[in-house]
Each structure stands twice: as C-alpha cells, then as structure tokens.
Specification:
Length: 223
C-alpha cells in the first residue's frame, strides 16, 4: 500500500526536508505541498491524502483552523492531520488536538522517527511520543483550566475501563498497558476500541483530552 502524504508548512526549507525524507521510502508518495492553511485544505480535499503534515503558524489560514476544516468533529469524512510544531513557541496546539488532529511532531524530529510516526498514524494510532504528548497536553490544560467549565458528566465506566482511560491519558502504549494490567496486547486493543466508542472519541488523542476535560486526570498527576 502506498502512503500518500500532503506537506503543509510556510517554510520552503521545511517542506523540502520532509519531502526528501519521505520520498526516500518506496511506499511513500507526496501528493503535494502547501505554503498556507487555505492551500492545504484545498489540496487535501482535492487529492484525499492518507495524512497531512500540518504546521501551526501559517499565513492566510493557520494550521489550527485548517485542521478543524479537514478533521474536526463536524467533518463527515475526516482526513488525518498530524500537527508539526516547535512546541515551545506554539500556544494553540491543544486547540488543534481538540479540533481533530491525530497527534503532533516536533520539527526537530529525527528522519527515521518521522517515517515511523507517519506509519503509526496512518495505521490508526493517534498518540505519538507519549512522554512529550503528556507534557504538551498538561501545559495547555493548565493554561486554559480557568477558562473551561468544571468536570462534565461521564458515561458509566467499569473499573477496568476507567483504569484503561487513565493509562491512555498518561501516555502508555498498548504494550505498556498490557504489561501493567497483565493482559495480552490483542485484549488491550479490543478494550481500547470499546472504550473509545463508549466515550465517543475518535482516537487516543481525543481520549487524553477527554480525561483532562472530565477531571479524571489533572496536570501534575504522576505518570
């Protein structure tokens, strides 16, 4: 299967670097490059890539708004979006994740890690670099806590489902959860799929945000 990727970044040197790395893989194909969010939305809707690598700060339309138009809750047929961020400078990545992004990459990612990240997200796993993900979401959850309402009602979760959600929110992979709960990875995958359906979350990224927003875990909680 060919993995088709659209690269969206306002810096030509970044686009060229990502293209060089991904083009070296025999099963990757670059569908196009976009220098702003509006162009990214247009090209993604036209070509339907398997994944969009989306910068945050771009002219015309920023990456957050573009992500919501491609993968937001109101989109019937979403296109997976992977945010590319400098992390320390981008203040709105949490909003992008809430808007439907599958996860995020740091711009200084190693070439092999970029390739692996794309493969992981295209395979349907949304949460990348668990330790960094926890840090990112914790920072933005803390920053915006005062502006958000209190914990919302949650559906009835079994003790096992609650444990599963907490482990996902702390950034554990399926293999790590399996080791913690002494279950097989295939069983964990089944439990995770059922949990996501029950809490109406599209992927693990949304499950992490769900846990924060419903007060199941708060910034600073131990991993």
């Amino acid at each position: 299967m060919t993995i088709r990727v659209l690269i969206a970044d306002d810096q030509a040197v970044v686009r060229a670097g990502f293209r060089t790395i991904l083009d070296a893989e025999p099963d990757f194909a670059i569908t196009g490059e976009a220098a702003d969010g509006a162009e990214a939305v247009r090209l993604a809707r036209r070509d339907r890539p398997d994944l969009v690598l989306m910068d945050v700060r771009m002219p015309v339309l920023d990456g957050i708004a573009a992500t919501e138009r491609l993968a937001g809750p109101a989109v019937d047929d979403p296109i997976p979006v992977l945010i590319v961020t400098t992390f320390d400078l981008d203040e709105y990545v949490f909003d992008a994740l809430r808007g439907g992004a599958c996860g995020f990459l740091l711009k200084d990612i190693e070439p092999d890690d970029l390739v692996q990240a794309v493969r992981v997200v295209v395979s349907g796993q949304g949460l990348l670099a668990p330790a960094v993900t926890r840090r990112l979401i914790a920072e933005y959850a803390r920053a915006s806590r005062a502006a958000r309402p209190g914990p919302r009602p949650i559906p009835d979760l079994t003790a096992r489902e609650r444990d599963m959600l907490l482990l996902i929110a702390r950034g554990l992979s399926n293999a790590e959860i399996a080791g913690t709960l002494f279950l097989s990875i295939s069983t964990i995958k089944t439990h995770v799929a059922r949990l996501l359906a029950k809490i109406d979350c599209r992927d693990r990224v949304q499950a992490v945000i769900y846990a924060y927003e419903h007060g199941l875990i708060t910034p600073g909680d131990p991993p």
